[in-house]
Write a structure and sequence with these properties.
Largest sheet: 6 strands, antiparallel
Number of strands: 6
Order of helices and strands: EHEEHHEEEHH
Helix content: 10-25%
Number of helices: 5
Distance between the termini: 20 Å
Strand order of the largest sheet: 2-3-1-4-5-6
Structural class: alpha+beta
Strand content: 25-35%
Oligomer: single chain
Length: 155
């Protein structure tokens, strides 16, 4: 079974404000006051400025989009996350912007195990304020496992 996700995650109001000017943006509610904006093909095409994707190491971050993430983060922390798994093996990437600059990451992990601090996405969610229960990680806490593919969040 596979899992893939490329998305922006932030406070509901921060993403609502960001999405207002992006006709292709669609939002999905997560737990703990957060929303998710999947990086759909239509959104990618709308926000890409034609420049190189940059040096952050993400495979689906549109060229120039990190400037938008930095701008949005003046209203509160904003994470960009990517995950791709097939048969239990895969990789995750995550970074968090706050106050106009990267404050966490970018992190990248391949394989099955994570550092004691947790997966890149769980670390990013923690920086966004997610509090997990004992025995649960932040990824599960906000329900990121509800859908196996990014587009399913908005269908």
């Amino acid at each position: 079974m596979s899992y893939d996700l490329q998305a922006v995650i932030a406070d509901v109001e921060v993403l609502r404000g960001a999405a207002r000017d992006l006709s292709a943006a669609r939002l999905a509610s997560l737990g703990q006051g957060l929303s998710l904006m999947p990086m759909t093909d239509a959104l990618f095409d709308l926000v890409a400025d034609g420049s190189d994707a940059g040096t952050l190491g993400f495979w689906r971050l549109p060229g120039g989009f990190e400037r938008s993430l930095a701008d949005w983060s003046t209203g509160g922390p904003v994470a960009y996350v990517e995950a791709e798994y097939f048969g239990g093996v895969g990789e995750q990437r995550a970074a968090v912007w706050d106050g106009g600059t990267i404050v966490l990451g970018p992190f990248h992990v391949e394989g099955q195990g994570f550092a004691p601090a947790g997966s890149p996405i769980s670390q990013a969610l923690r920086r966004l304020g997610v509090v997990a229960s004992v025995g649960e990680d932040e990824f599960s806490c906000v329900g990121l496992g509800r859908h196996r593919h990014g587009e399913a969040w908005i269908s």
